[in-house]
Every structure is written in structure tokens, then in C-alpha cells.
Amino acid sequence: MTRIANLLIPILLLAPAFPASAQSAGLEIDIVGGNAAALPIAVVPFAGNTGQTDIDNIIRADLARSGQFRTLDEAGLPERPTQGSEVAYPTWRMLKQDFLLVGRASPSSGGYRVEYELFDVARQERLLGFALTAPESSMRDVAHQIADAVYEKILGVPGAFWTRIAYITSSGLGRNSRYALMVADADGFAPRTVVNSTEPLMSPSWSPDGRRLAYVSFEGGNSAVYLQDIASGAREKAASFRGINGAPSFSPDGGRLALTLSKGGNPDIYVMDLASKQLTQVTTHFGIDTEPTWTPDGGGLVFTSDRGGRPQLYQAGANGGSATRISFEGSYNASPSVSFDGKKIAVAQGSGNTYRIALLDRSTGGARWSMLSPGSLDESPSFAPNAAMVLYAGREGRRGVLYAVSADARVRQRLVLAEGDVREPAWSPYRKQ
Amino acid sequence: MNAPAPRMARTMLVAALVCATAIGCSKKVKEAPPVEPTASTDTGATTTSPMVDTGPTRAGAYGPGDLDSDACLRNRVVYFDLDQDALKPEFQAAMNCHAKYLRDRPAARLRLEGNADERGSREYNVGLGERRGNAVSSALQANGGSGSQLTVVSYGEERPVCNDGGEDCWSQNRRVELVYSAK
Q: How many domains does chain B have?
């Protein structure tokens, strides 16, 4: 895995400065763990120049951190073909590569045209051949889109590299604390500040179209739920009732917002119709009910409740009705993230002073658990839109750092903000071209 | 987003309180150090200063100046055990004198800011902080304070006073701060 870490260094050196994020001195990336069963793929350096962006390096890093691919070290390339006519299959078969990606870039109307071709080495067959044209500032997007296309062509599952993450940062203690809601590319690059505050910010949640974030802000002296357009900054206050206003979650159709309100005396789950602002109370229990997350069909909510004593996961209909407990392993289960197909739920599972990210797989009808993280204070899991990876927050000394782990727990990547605390990652939906 | 003006005023009020645990504060505020929930034998005796056992010392009515001078009223942080929202007996005296202050000064308004340590889910901890705030609110009302004078706000684990980790640190974060928004 040192090999992969080395490959990442050039990306770090090329990372441009982002003045918008005053708190961040840049993200540090490394990969821990590895997967011997991953598919070998050679990504040959692309011919031509794309300015500041090293496209093939980004593709290599994306494929490697997915856990599904093992990329060939750039130094180990005996040949450097840049188009199909230059590919000698025996060379790549000898190197035990299953797949080969080549490409080339050329200037085009103020930006670059990037062509790429993917080959199946054993079958000696071209699988993909496309060209993308974009301005220089979008070259990282182009690289992630190529990685997505390769991932989908080979694995039959859409890639989630061209996506974004939202997260919270904080620095300082007590009244010197500063908080920020940030959005960055899924690999941690290009962070930018969406909201800055001297009061806590919490619980970012993406709208299904990826254009808005719901979040909690204490700027008014108490918690309130806001909805904010990321591009324009326009925002509205969705909930500021007496007591807790927390844990917002957009419904899959984007028309409703599940949230936690304690205006009735203790925290219960509600669903707000965003057009009419009308509230439907989903749970009515003296325990703490919070962290509602929608099932993909929009008909149900998975949430955390301590009605049985300790926090555990429950599921209820989005219109109310009785709640059913769904977590029976571990003394503490909270912060559910539901996969796009509803089959898997990632949670923060506690035992004593140790909190780890656990995966509850319900696809076989039963409940199969596996561990995704080593602990010891891991929290806030968030599935990638293709459910192949999970983002979460862990602690490292006094600060929080983010990790991205493959859903089979084999490859873990650390995304570290240079200063302060980074937490509550939320993986965006797929972006639209 | 910057804090609106009223918020700044509140921040000034809470400043003295924050100083109780922050490093490098001015020495003019000599508040009791945090009381260890599980009073460890080596420091428990000294950190649990006598003021904790002092009820309202004054026969007459409290005035705003007493918030800074009265030993009992200066006790404005209530600490809790892990995952607990039950008020511990050592804070009963503080409840008595703050309830008396609220009775003596009907225009006074008190914000009860609930907090949790960093373990566990953040939103769940907001719920836990509210329970702690409600426990203090109930205790104050049981001693004659009026519910209309009290507001509970939970910050969960979002406003730690210590981020070193470990039980000593966590015990300082499991707290309710009493903040007078009107004296």
C-alpha cells in the first residue's frame, strides 16, 4: 500500500489553493489496508497536458480507494500507449493486468478535450472509447467521470467518484469556537465554505437533486433547521420551534423533510411537507427519538430511539404508526445511513467506550452484521450513492478526521483537514451532467 | 454567519462561566473548579469547595450583584454522570439558591444550556443535553422558580469545554450551564 501512497503525492503537490476555505490548509490523503482480490488495472499516463490537473493520477487514486481495483504502479509500465492502435495486449497480459486504460488530452476552445479508451486485456477487446471536452477548471470532474465510466463498465454498478461530500469543521474551545459547513469533492479536494458561524452547525443532509443542504444552526441562540441552496447561498429557515430542531433528512422525492423536534416536551420524529410546511408527527414516545433516515421508497423511516433503555434503531412508517426495533446486536446503535437499495444500514455501534462503524445487511432476509471501522470513537456513517463505500468520522487525538471505507471494509482512506476538527460527513447523491 | 447582537450579549455573560474551565483566564473570577462526579480521593476534597454545601445564606432578597459575590449563586455549572440526567445531591444547594434568586427577582430569566460528552451520536447527545437541562429546570421549579423564567437549550456535544478525551475531560463536558439572560 506504500505504492499507492506514493502515487498520491503528486496529486497533493498539484492541489490548488482554495482561498474560500479559510480554516483549511489542505487535505491530506492516505490509504490504509488493501484488497488482494481487487481487479488489476493499468492506467497509463495520458498524453498531452491538462494544465494543473493530472488526470490519470486522479483516476488511479479513485479506482484504488474503491477497494475494487488494484492499479499498476506508474514506474512499472514497460510501454505507454495513448490510443488503441498502440496497445500490445501480450505486454499487459504478461503483467497480469485484467484491464488497461489509455488516454490523451488536447487543447480545445479554452479548455481541453480528453479522449480515453478502456480495454479488456484477456479478451483483447475495447470496452469503452469516449471523449470529454471541458474547461481547465473542470478537469478534476472529467477525471472522476472517467473513473465512474470505467467502474460501471467493469463492475456493472455506477461509480460514485464524481460526487461531493458535505461536512462540518470546528476549531477552538468554548466561546472561541468557530464552525463551518463545508462542501468538497468526494476525494476531499476543492473544499469550499457554505456557512460560517460562531455557534454550532450540525447534521448536513443533501437534497436528492444535490443542489441544497439541510442543516442545523444555533446562530439564533437555539437550534434551528435551515435549507440552503449551495450555489446561490439562498436559504430559508424550515424549523425553529421551542426546544430541539434537529436531524433533518430529505425524503427521496425531495418534497418532505424528516426531522427531530422536542416542541412536544421530548424529542420525537416529524415529517414536514416542504411546500406547505405542514408537520406530521411520526413518533410519540417519552424516549429520545432522533436521526430519522428515509427508506428508499419514501414510505418509511429508520431512526434512533432509547425507548428500550439504550439507543437502538427502529423503523416506522413515514406517516406514523407503530415502530419496530431492527438492531439487536451491540449495546448502542445510532446514526443510521440507509443504502440506496435499502438492503444495508451503516450505524455507529457502541460498546463501552468504543464506537465503531458497523454494517447491518438485511439483503438475505435476516440480519448480518459486519464491522467497517476499528474505532475507537467513530461516528456519523454516510453511504456513497452506489453503496460501495461509506464515509465516517473518527478521532485522532483532539481532532476529528474523515475516513472513506469500502463497504467490504478492505480499503480505508483518510481525509484529514490540516487544522481543527472535521466531522459529520454526508455523501452527496449522484451529480447530474 | 456572525452571531446577532443579543447573542453577543449572552456570550459576554457566559464568558465568566467559560473561564471556570478554560486555560489562561483572568483570575478575578474565582469560580469553583468542576466537581468530579466520581469524586476521586486525591482531589475531591479540595475541588468540592465549601460553597457547594451552602444554601441561600441571605435572609433578605437577592440582588443582581449577588450573582458575582454570593458563593452559592456563583455555582452555575451542574455536572452529570455518564448517560445520566439525574441531578446529583451535591447540586441541590445551588438549586435552592438559584430558585430563591428567581423568586426574589421575577424579571430574571435563566437559560439552561445542556451539554453532553463526545461519545455517541451527536443528535442523540442533543436529546441527552436537553434531558439534563430539563432536570435542572424541574429542580429549580420544585424549589419555587417559575417555568416562565426558564429556557432550556441543548448543545449536545457541540460545545465542549475540554477536548482532550478521557473521563476527566468527558466529566467536564457533561454539564448544564446556568446563564442569566436577564438579571
A: 1
